[in-house]
Amino acid sequence: MDAVQQCVIMSKPSSSKCNLDCSYCFYLEKEKLYPDQSRWQMSDETLERYIYQYIEAQSGVDVQFAWQGGEPTLMGVDFFRKVVKLCEKYGAGKCISHAFQTNGVLINEEWCEFFIENKFLIGLSIDGPQKFHDHYRVNRAQRGSFDKVMAAVDLFKKYNVEFTTLTVISDVNAEHGVEVYRFLKEIGSTYMQFIPLVERAAREDPKDGLMLVTPDRVEADVTSWSVSPLQYGHFLTSIFDEWVTRDVGKVFVQTFDNTISSWCGEHPGICIFSETCGHSFALEANGDLYNCDHFVYPEHKLGNIHDIPIKEMNNSQQAIEFGQNKKDLLTLDCKNCAFLFACNGGCPKHRFNVSPSGHPRHNYFCEGYKHYFNHVAETMDKIRELVFNRYPINDIMILKGMNLVKSSSKKNTFKPVGRNEPCPCGSGKKYKKCCMD
Ligand SMILES: C[S@@+](CC[C@H](N)C(=O)[O-])C[C@H]1O[C@@H](n2cnc3c(N)ncnc32)[C@H](O)[C@@H]1O
Ligand code: SF4
Ligand code: SF4
Ligand code: SF4
User: Fold this and answer.
1) What pTM did the predictor assign?
2) ipTM confidence score
3) What is the tens place of the pLDDT at every residue in 343-371?
4) DSSP reduced 3-state for 166
5) 365 CA distance to ligand 4 middle (Å)
6) Which site from 16, 177, 389, 414 is most exposed, i.e. has the minimal number of CB atoms within 10 Å?
């Protein structure tokens, strides 16, 4: 069992407990998985076991912890002081970093000082200007959380805490892409992640109590707050057009970064556009490990870290199959798609539609992705040419400004360069030995 597949774990020390009650949240209902459990906080014993095992499970020197929930700030700063101490104890010379995803509501001076001192990278959830954000991101009294999030932004700026933003694209903000993008820029976000919202609700009460179902369930309906595929496609292209003419090199949009990587023949950084699912697990507060944050369902539990080491679960048949299924279960439409290299069929959580040629398990967002990839194809070709000829990528803004690169809606015929093919820069070396690095 010495195999060395890297794994990433999103851990939920406060389980699904939260101080907000966002209407679209997929995680709040996970408490139904543990009807007999009175304690929702991760115990010291589980924490220590987790930190030891997670570090041990990594083959490389870099170990990234990702703290999430529920709401991780509910654990209090002292819990994370323990985290840092345990990482020192078990770090074994590895380079350990921490990402921390929060709704921002409880952020105060103490948190900021802690984040700065321990170099935590913060992800802040914000869905755009107040009228969009407060629509779904509410507390139990249905009051919006926008003012508290903005207070957190002010504190982050005051203390120079590095933060990225995570914005859910729903039916409410999807048609206001440029407004959302400009707002995020204005509040100082230079690294933006957008998550398209789609959930399906069961038609009948499910046995496990979870109303939001996995893609295998047929008797389920897309919720009203989900974004439509084309709405999401238009959202992406509207902000792409703004970004590519003004902000390349200044603002990082995860989706665009990933598309550039794919166009240049590299692996995209995010799992949804990767060939396989990787080993991105979710850890519940009691030590239960699941295939993925979006597959926290009984049938996707790998085991508990008190019974089986993470390293072993990471190498288990169940984990390997889950990752590989992303590639193996592609529809024929995906296999024949000109954008497969950049899309890879998208996230399996979203594969519940029937494809145009009649195959089940096709990605709900397909139409939107095709719209996006067609729209950016010509610009991406140009960016790739710039990269391979060692020009600054920002030069794309000059070419766009002079109207020398258009937004394309024609079918893309681009084929990515293989690792073993000659490098397009003309060096005569193999691509993997040259510009790919
Ligand atoms: C589950 S929350 C946990 C961390 C923290 N409470 C927060 O809101 O940032 C993590 C991220 O998932 C997003 N999210 C919640 N429900 C979602 C859903 N149904 N689909 C996609 N993303 C969702 C949230 O907006 C948030 O950015
Ligand atoms: S703040 Fe995060 S965990 Fe809490 S309800 Fe909203 S999305 Fe869910
Ligand atoms: S199921 Fe989706 S979110 Fe989970 S690892 Fe695979 S692509 Fe990523
Ligand atoms: S764009 Fe559609 S057909 Fe093409 S790979 Fe993505 S999901 Fe499949």
Assistant:
1) 0.92
2) 0.99
3) 999 999 999 999 999 999 999 999 999 99
4) strand
5) 8
6) 389
